[in-house]
Amino acid sequence: MRTTVVFLLLAISSTVYGQDITVAARPSDVDLDPQRLQRIDNLIQDYINQNKIPGAVALIVRHGKIAYLQAFGVRDVNSKQKLRTDDIFRIASQTKAITSLAIMMLFEEGKFMLDEPISHFIPEFANATVLESFNAADTTYTTASAKRPITFRHLLTHTSGIDYPAIGSPEFRAIYAKAGIPSGIGNDGATLGDKIRTLAKLPLKHHPGDAYTYGLNTDVLGYLVEILSGMTLDEFFQKRIFQPLGMKDTHFYVPRNKRSRVVPLHEYVNDKVVRVDHPIYDGVDPNYPTTDGTYYSGGAGLCSTVEDYARFLQLFLNKGTFNGKRLLSRKTVELMLTLQTQQPITNQVGLGFGLETDNNDFRSIVSKGTFSWGGAFSSTYWADPQEELIGMLFLNMYNNPHGEVHEKFKNLVYQAISD
Prior knowledge:
Elements: H1 14-17, E1 22-23, H2 34-49, E2 55-62, E3 65-73, E4 89-90, H3 95-108, E5 129-135, E6 140-145, H4 152-156, H5 170-179, H6 192-199, H7 217-229, H8 233-245, E7 266-269, E8 272-275, E9 303-304, H9 306-317, E10 321-322, E11 325-326, H10 330-336, E12 356-357, E13 371-375, E14 379-384, E15 389-394, E16 397-398, H11 404-415
Parallel strand pairs: 1-3, 7-16
Antiparallel strand pairs: 2-3, 2-15, 4-9, 5-6, 7-8, 10-11, 12-13, 13-14, 14-15
């Protein structure tokens, strides 16, 4: 999901968007060709007309100004209600970058060192083991001692050896399911600390630092934020990140007065788009954002709007400041966007997972240093520091077979640059 939107004249006050994201009077003011932007409209409308997606919200920010913001199609194929630009989406793994920001804010406060073992704060991770053999018939296994402890850096680069429930390897899907370890989406009846302490006693897929495995690393970081800050992850996000950035519509569990704005989840079945009416990952209710949960998944739990998430990304383009508030130093931002892993690890990742840096080999249209990621329900983003450009396309699709629309959208954003 590394791929990652008609322009509206909106009357938005500076108290809503702040000085660092305003609305461009016209796309040409930020060197985007309005006629070429029309190609984006055509692309997304074609996907809707072909019944491949129900709708989409698309956003482009350039030079700190919203140059393009549009909602297409419907938010619900049953009711035919039109999608709105302020509708709230499940952003799933887009949560990871926000958790990375949180942990690095605590790093700047001297709470830990990057190469410090996490067992100093979660003792259950002491004496970690690595899976040696697995019996699929009864899910029993044998282990060996890990060569080295898991560190904060391992978690931030997904090189700890922790796998993922629901979408990980067959062995670990079985091991985690037996232990009751969730993927982080919609597990409203548990608490993060309980599950992470249980996870800590289970084997790793490989020795820490030896390989890349996309896993529950950022959920562990979320629990470390709770330990180091003395707040729940929800409280830390709201007080330390969302309020300063003005992210007023980003939540783990959406407040009751906003639940009508949560976009229903859809999927593609028998050549048409239908609403999801069955459990999803880990047997989760697809309507989990409208529950009153207590499980704050740092890797997958948040819901948000395109405009809220643009504010978060602009913080990094601004090198750690937004609307006169500094959340990180310029040097920490540089560190987070610097590749951390080396061969033989094939996945080259930055320190702030979810802010994956593109080392562009000139086979992609994005500039070198662009960072991006996405979410399980077909939402994507990227931010290009050289072009001072942010792009986002949010769908509301489960197991979307037409994910190429995100790459096409990205290409159409860049072809509209006119300077």
